[in-house]
Amino acid sequence: MEHSYFDFATLPPAARYGLMANAVTPRPVAFVTSLSPERVPNAAPFSFFGLLSHDPATLAIGIEPRPDGRRKDTARNIVETGDFIVHIADRALCAQMDACGAPVEPEEDELALNAIATVPGTIVDVPRIADAPVALECRLHSLLPLGPARDIVIGSVVGCHIRADAMGPELKVDQAMIDTIGRVGAASYCSTRDRFRP
């Protein structure tokens, strides 16, 4: 089978991003809430995201800066307060989650702007999205600055919420019930309900 080869050393960053974001799919989306030191809530989705370990429970999120080079509110809040919650959105929450990706200034509350109901976090002092089927309460483990393109936030997962109707016996999660979504490039998402086994 013939393949096209791309030498990343010769490609501009935008081309590398396009190839990676459209080829590595579907990607889980971290729908992250945080609070600024001034207590302003923030919510934003990030698809450069993944689980790293279960023991200790650890995840990582890649967060780009704003176009003007400032850290995005999510990264700034996490660095300054240490607390955040990663939600896994379902199809019903997708439009509101996507809307939270729009650029707004730090004093704006994306949760209020997009009519997203919240409840307090259990361990971390951050709003939890009430309708998200999964929420992982996290504390900052470390920050890995990768230069101008991205901060890697490594979080320790200190607690997990899973919607009760999706829980079966022996801690089994019913994937059809939580109906999570993934990012498949550009502005497209997919549902995880279409599953198969080889």
Any key phrases for this structure?
single chain, 198 residues, alpha+beta, Pnp Oxidase, Chain A, seven-stranded antiparallel sheet, three-stranded antiparallel sheet, 12 strands, 17% helix
Decide which structural class fits the backbone. alpha+beta
Name the overall outline. globular
The number of distinct structural domains comes to: 1
CATH superfamily: Electron Transport, Fmn-binding Protein, Chain A
**Lateral arrangement of strands in the main beta sheet:** 3-2-6-9-10-5-4
Question: How does this model look, in words?
Answer:
By secondary structure, this protein is an alpha+beta fold. It has a single domain (24-191), classed as Electron Transport, Fmn-binding Protein, Chain A (Pnp Oxidase, Chain A, Roll). The protein has helices at 13-23, 73-81, 94-99, 110-113, 175-178, and strands at 27-28, 30-35, 41-46, 49-54, 57-63, 83-88, 118-120, 127-129, 134-145, 151-162, 181-183, 189-191. The strands form three sheets. Strands 3-2-6-9-10-5-4 form a seven-stranded antiparallel sheet, with helices on one face. The protein has a three-stranded antiparallel sheet with strand order 1-11-12, with no helix packed on it. Strand 7 and strand 8 form a beta hairpin. It is globular. It starts with 12 loop residues before the first helix and ends in a 7-residue tail after the last strand.
